[in-house]
């Protein structure tokens, strides 16, 4: 596999915003005026972020990243050459094909769970919960690892306007402080604006009274969940100021036109605005890819939108100098069967499917793993959810083998003994 230039390594940008603050405090740095602006700029420069494009329901690898034209399982679409010699993807993705130089395709996922609920849980957390512990999802982990305690923006935002069924996101044992800001009813956060009938001074008084009562309630009580909720609420004032990031009226008409008018496009544009402001993790859910019937019509409609929006996002991030520190993921709960059913659909399939990683920490213009000629099984480089998550963490400069602690119990970030896929890391 050939290494590509222009991609950051975890060591290049190893200092997180939290680490930078700690170093500044240790050396006695005091920032006022221009110094404060310089500090803020350095923190933003060092901060890494993730945008996950969640293809809810299970997108087909054969109509996206691992086509099998000519095979009995291949379907009607051709494959096309990409900007990387010898790498071909579906003809439904011509724009990404021209700029694959920032993207790594993994074609060898075998996650063994083809149930919507179980598969989504697994692919959002990188592992299965045990009987006594609910693990945090990727967004919560990155909120903890990459977020700044005094940030004025949310650490974790999840768009789920189109997704059917229950939401699989959650902070697990990390608590409410690292939970997602859920947007499931509209494009802007709910209940974050000051009521119109309350003046600014009255609102400030109410916040002060609430804080006083909370401090009194906390006295003599020791509770991790209470502390977590108090931390979360303490950030509300700052989060209220971040509402403008969700308003695309502040974005140029040229940029809005580039992304396109669809809801998915607008959410991805907001995601770019959020990470640019310092949000560590944004997930945008695009549904519904569950093509048990009319698989080819479904993908003929949805894949070109993904192709356009994803390519626009990557180009936008690169032009702004953000792609070196931003990892863009495309991921589902599973893929689709190579076999085509009687309704001309593809069913759930978790034995040999694909995802992509673009930007910070990965080797662009590359492919890892291989499936057989029909797409029935992985024949080279098989990995599961745990190794994928270890790879993501490593790309971001996070040690995938570190421990969290629940009481005195050590809880590893990934399953014990899990190694990242070094072949895809820059």
Could you please describe the fold and organization of this structure?
The structure is a single chain. This protein is α/β, with parallel strands linked by helices and 426 residues long. The protein has a single domain (39-188, 205-424), classed as Alkaline Phosphatase, subunit A, CATH 3.40.720. The protein has helices at 17-26, 34-46, 94-98, 116-125, 138-146, 200-218, 224-234, 236-240, 253-259, 263-276, 295-319, 385-395, and strands spanning 49-55, 79-81, 88-90, 103-109, 156-159, 181-183, 281-286, 326-331, 335-336, 348-349, 353-359, 366-368, 370-371, 378-380, 403-406, 409-412. The strands form five sheets. An eight-stranded mixed sheet has the order 6-5-7-1-8-11-4-12, sandwiched between helices. Strands 2-3 form a two-stranded antiparallel ribbon. The radius of gyration is 22 Å and the shape is globular.
The tally of beta strands, per DSSP, is 16
Label the CATH architecture.
3-Layer(aba) Sandwich
Q: Widest sheet: strand order?
A: 6-5-7-1-8-11-4-12
Assembly form of the protein: single chain
Percent in helix: 25-40%
Total separate domains: 1
Structural class computed from helices and strand pairing: alpha/beta
* Strand content range: 15-25%
Uncertain regions spanning at least 5 consecutive residues: 1-45
Return the average pLDDT rounded to an integer: 85
Largest sheet: 8 strands, mixed
| CATH topology type | Alkaline Phosphatase, subunit A
Molecular shape: globular
């Amino acid at each position: 596999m050939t290494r590509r230039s222009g991609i950051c390594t975890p060591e290049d940008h190893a200092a997180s915003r939290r680490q930078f603050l700690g170093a500044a405090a240790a050396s006695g740095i005091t920032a006022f005026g221009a110094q404060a602006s310089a500090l803020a700029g350095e923190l933003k420069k060092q901060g890494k972020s993730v945008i996950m494009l969640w293809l809810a329901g299970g997108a087909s690898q054969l109509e996206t990243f691992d086509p099998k034209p000519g095979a009995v399982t291949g379907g009607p679409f051709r494959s096309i050459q990409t900007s990387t010699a010898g790498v071909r993807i579906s003809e439904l993705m011509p724009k990404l094909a021209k700029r694959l130089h920032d993207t790594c395709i993994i074609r060898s996922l075998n996650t063994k769970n083809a149930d919507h609920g179980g598969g989504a849980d697994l692919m959002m957390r990188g592992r299965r919960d045990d009987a006594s512990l609910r693990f945090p999802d990727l967004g919560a982990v990155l909120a903890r690892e990459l977020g700044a305690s005094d940030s004025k923006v949310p650490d974790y935002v999840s768009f789920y306007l189109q997704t059917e069924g229950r939401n699989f996101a959650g902070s697990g044992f990390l608590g409410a402080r690292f939970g997602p800001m859920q947007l499931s009813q509209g494009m802007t956060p709910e209940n974050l604006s000051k009521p119109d009938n309350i003046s600014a001074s009255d609102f400030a008084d109410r916040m002060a009274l609430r804080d006083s009562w909370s401090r009194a309630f906390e006295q003599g009580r020791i509770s991790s969940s209470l502390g977590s909720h108090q931390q979360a609420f303490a950030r509300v004032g700052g989060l209220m100021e971040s509402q403008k990031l969700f308003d695309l009226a502040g974005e140029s008409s040229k940029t809005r036109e580039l992304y396109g008018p669809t809801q998915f496009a607008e959410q991805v544009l907001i995601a770019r605005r959020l990470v640019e402001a310092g949000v560590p993790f944004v997930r945008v859910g695009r549904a519904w890819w569950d093509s048990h019937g009319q698989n080819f019509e479904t993908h003929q409609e949805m894949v070109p939108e993904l192709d356009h929006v994803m390519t626009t996002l990557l180009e936008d991030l690169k032009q702004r100098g953000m792609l070196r520190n931003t990892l863009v993921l495309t991921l589902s709960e599973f893929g689709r069967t190579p076999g085509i059913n009687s309704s001309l659909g593809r069913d759930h399939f978790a034995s040999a499917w694909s995802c992509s990683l673009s930007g910070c920490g990965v080797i662009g213009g590359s492919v890892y793993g291989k499936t057989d000629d029909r797409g029935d099984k992985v024949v080279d480089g098989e990995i599961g959810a745990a190794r994928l998550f270890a790879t993501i963490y490593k790309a971001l400069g996070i040690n995938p083998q570190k421990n969290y602690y629940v009481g005195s119990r050590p809880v590893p970030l990934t399953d014990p003994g899990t190694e990242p896929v070094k072949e895809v890391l820059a």
